[in-house]
């Protein structure tokens, strides 16, 4: 429910819907790369592609929207900003309140070792660890669900030591991706997918076999 999200944020970040409004958080799992992205790119090869992942997600969510012709469906993507430069929604907070993934933050560590350093939080999924992404929010403004019960996210990094290790790795060594394996995971990105996301955006087209013209 939108109210779960608004309840934990300052008014400046609230979503402009009644508290009981139904919303869905959309995650991409490791298999998205092979099952969605590569087929999308090969099908759209002759069109202009600016950002393959964003356009692939947008394509699939617009198809979801078509399944509800009688409903208004508002879609917000994780990369979209308001005119104020604030994000349209805070993806990690949304995932946490929906019970999709646990958002570990500095306040989850009792004995904070970081002093004045800025420490960013990170979501961990009970099945995929850090090998997933939060892509979008789907809001159904006409559907009110007062009866919906809030599921707590799975606290899969429960020890103090592990939480400190997770936040250390994410904040100071994020490039090596070790934070993603803070727990045993059922599935992770393929080597091809790791290479893709580790490559500067301008050079990713080549990895997908896209020519200069397609860019």
TrEMBL record:
Superkingdom of origin: Eukaryota
Intracellular or extracellular location(s): Cytoplasm
EC code(s) of this entry: 1.16.1.6, 2.5.1.151
Keyword list, A-Z: Cobalamin, Cobalt, Cytoplasm, FAD, Flavoprotein, FMN, NADP, Oxidoreductase
GO molecular function: cobalamin binding; cyanocobalamin reductase (cyanide-eliminating) (NADP+) activity; demethylase activity; FAD binding
Chief place where the protein resides: cytoplasm
CC per GO annotation: cytoplasm
Signal peptide: none
Catalytic activity, as annotated: apo-[alkylcobalamin reductase] + an R-cob(III)alamin + glutathione = cob(I)alamin-[alkylcobalamin reductase] + an S-substituted glutathione + H(+); 2 cob(II)alamin-[cyanocobalamin reductase] + 2 hydrogen cyanide + NADP(+) = 2 cyanocob(III)alamin + 2 apo-[cyanocobalamin reductase] + NADPH + H(+); apo-[alkylcobalamin reductase] + adenosylcob(III)alamin + glutathione = S-adenosylglutathione + cob(I)alamin-[alkylcobalamin reductase] + H(+); apo-[alkylcobalamin reductase] + methylcob(III)alamin + glutathione = S-methyl glutathione + cob(I)alamin-[alkylcobalamin reductase] + H(+)
Cofactor dependency: FMN; FAD
Cited Pfam families: MMACHC
Annotated protein name in UniProt: Cyanocobalamin reductase / alkylcobalamin dealkylase
Taxonomic lineage from the root: Eukaryota, Metazoa, Chordata, Craniata, Vertebrata
């Amino acid at each position: 429910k939108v109210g779960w999200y608004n309840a934990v944020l300052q008014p400046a970040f609230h979503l402009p819907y009644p508290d009981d409004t139904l919303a869905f958080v959309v995650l991409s799992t490791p298999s998205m790369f092979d099952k969605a992205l590569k087929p999308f790119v090969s099908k759209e090869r002759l069109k202009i592609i600016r950002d393959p992942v964003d356009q692939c997600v947008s394509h699939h969510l617009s198809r979801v929207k078509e399944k509800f012709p009688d409903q208004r469906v508002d879609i917000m993507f994780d990369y979209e900003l308001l005119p104020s430069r604030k994000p349209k929604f805070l993806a990690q907070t949304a995932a946490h309140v929906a019970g999709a993934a646990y958002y570990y933050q500095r306040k989850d560590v009792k004995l904070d070792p970081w002093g004045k350093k800025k420490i960013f939080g990170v979501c961990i999924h009970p099945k995929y660890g850090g090998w997933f992404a939060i892509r979008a929010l789907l809001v159904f403004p006409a559907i009110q669900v007062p009866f919906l019960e809030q599921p707590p996210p799975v606290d899969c990094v429960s020890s103090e030591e592990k939480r400190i290790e997770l936040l250390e790795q994410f904040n100071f060594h994020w490039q090596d991706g070790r934070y993603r394996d803070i727990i045993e995971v059922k599935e992770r990105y393929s080597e091809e997918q790791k290479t893709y996301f580790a490559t500067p955006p301008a050079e990713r087209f080549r990895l997908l076999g896209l020519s200069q013209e397609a860019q």
